[in-house]
Amino acid sequence: MTADDTARARDAAHHLHPYTDPGVHERTGPHIITRGEGIHVWDTDGNAYIEGLAGLWCVTLGFSEPRLVDAAKRQMETLPFYHSFGGRAPEVVGELAERLIAQAPGAMNRVFFTNSGSEANDSLIKLTWACNNGLGRPEKKKIIARQGSYHGITLATAGLTHLPYARTGFDVPLNDRFLATTCPNHFREARPDESEEAFADRLAADLDRLIEAEGPHTVAAFIAEPVLGAGGVIPPPATYFDKVQAVLKKHDVFLIADEVICGFGRTGNRFGSETYGLDPDMVTLAKGLSSGYQPIGAALMSERVYEGVKAAAAETGMLGTGFTYSGHPVPVAVALEALRLYEERDVVGMTRARTPHFQARLHALADHPLVGDTRGVGLLGGVEVVADPATGARFDPATGAAKVAARHCMDHGLFVRPLPGDTLGVCPPLIITEAEIDALFDRLRAGLDSAADALGVPRG
Questions:
Q1: Quick one: which of 68, 157, 388, 427 has the fewest CB in 10 Å?
Q2: Cα 251 to Cα 181: distance, rounded to the nearest angstrom
Q3: Phi (first) and psi of residue 178, to 5 degrees
Q4: Residue 195 C-alpha from the chain's centroid
Q5: Other beta carbons within 10 Å of 213
Q6: Which CATH architecture has domain 31-64+346-455?
Q7: Residue 168's pLDDT is what?
Q8: Per-residue confidence at 67, pLDDT binned at 50, 70, 90?
Q9: What is the mean pLDDT of residues 7-26?
Q10: pLDDT tens-digit profile of 133-169?
């Protein structure tokens, strides 16, 4: 047995993988990745792949940035761990908090550090409830998400993640504080001949009716990704957020911007909130915050939210929430270096320069016999796989059409991710060049061609 065989066998025998069928994994074992460089990763057989989802939407600066490695090493040698409990803190934590407040969308005032986007959103659920206790409105606790949204996978955030896999089989409690309104997917949810603006009018009216039906005095917040990511890469229809925010202001409902995927340049601005004109009361960050090199997340809040939280904490003498690794100095040091790199290399400007070519290549796939819709913004794209592009008819779910297409893309040297609604997510590292964009979409088209053959769809 080779060393590679041994590694596969022990993983199959002992490792319970996220988002993987355990029974299938027992039989097939893992695809082991050994190294990365730039936008590419390699497996144990020496095969190279374009990482078309930046790992998990996160490796913005590529897989071989030495300055991030050096930042982790320096911090490990100086102070490898300390906490922020009881008012203590590593020096670097305050510096990162200050930098994030200076950059963040909206009028943010305080940062609460976590280890992931799920934890950041989970923390904001609790902090929103605490805030309204502190503001003297204890009934204002319900949080509205959208159908098709993804906001995490903890027991609480699974209540805001309106995707079946996050709930089915786990007995996630149907908390009456978690509500959902219409998904802003114009391709799937719009009525015949309904423009994006008219669709946005209808969705804002849906939200208004929901808040009125529940009672505005009971609704605390509306949480939204600027672009729905894991729910199928769904940018908002034109005028959507303007109209939604007017409804929220009318009912004094907080806006939480989930920037876990969209933050740090992905949409062509520093944050997706800038791209779509959001003025949030709270913001969550993760993924690109450290370019995925270390686990870190952050929950940001406005002065008003902070004052409510502070008042609630005064009742018990402390803010009774946090994690052992909240503000861990090593991820914080890496995040600080990532922020320096974004500024020094003008990553936002680089993304804007690459966007027209990326989006042109993305939308050129609309002529493929497997493609019903292409959508995206910045260096973020979704390709919806359908059985009939003329009608938008889907494959039988048992076919797993997007999974089939993703496997064939892998055979052509490209990793993309199958998402709900048979959509392929495309989200490469932001350092990608125009030539690499061409290579990515050439491989994606080749993968779709092979998938069409496997699914019995004529290529014309």
A1: 388
A2: 16
A3: -110, 120
A4: 27
A5: 9
A6: Alpha-Beta Complex (3.90)
A7: 85
A8: very high
A9: 92
A10: 999 999 999 999 999 999 999 999 999 999 999 888 8
pLDDT at 386 over 90: yes
User: 427, 54 in Cβ contact below 8 A?
Assistant: yes
3-state helix, strand, coil in the chain (%, to 5): 45, 15, 40
For residue 123, what are its two tokens? Answer: 């923390």
Could you please report the per-residue DSSP string of 332-368?
Answer: HHHHHHHHHHHHHTTHHHHHHHHHHHHHHHHHGGGGS
What DSSP line would sit under 313-327, residue for residue? HHHHTS-----TTTT
List of residues 6+ apart from 255 with CB closer than 8 A: 221, 222, 224, 245, 248, 278, 279, 280, 281, 282
Within 219-344, residue ranges assigned H as helices are 240-250, 272-276, 303-316, 329-344
Domain segments of the chain as ranges: 31-64+346-455, 67-344
Kindly state the tokens that stand for 164. 């079946």
What is the chain's length? 460
| Cβ atoms of residues 423 and 233 within 8 Å | yes
Q: What is the pTM of this model?
A: 0.97
User: Could you tell me the fold of the domain covering 67-344?
Assistant: Aspartate Aminotransferase; domain 2 (3.40.640)
Neighbouring C-beta atoms of residue 442, cutoff 10 Å = 15
Structure tokens at 215: 């009672």
Q: Where are the alpha helices (DSSP H) in 15-164?
A: 22-28, 54-57, 66-78, 91-103, 117-134
| pLDDT on residue 1 | 60
Is the distance from CB of 266 to CB of 36 less than 8 angstroms?
no
| Confidence band, pLDDT 50/70/90 cuts, at residue 173 | confident
Whole-number Å distance between alpha carbons of 271 and 319? 29
Measured distance CA(255)–CA(210) in Å, rounded: 16
Of 418, 415, 389, the closest CA to residue 401 belongs to: 418
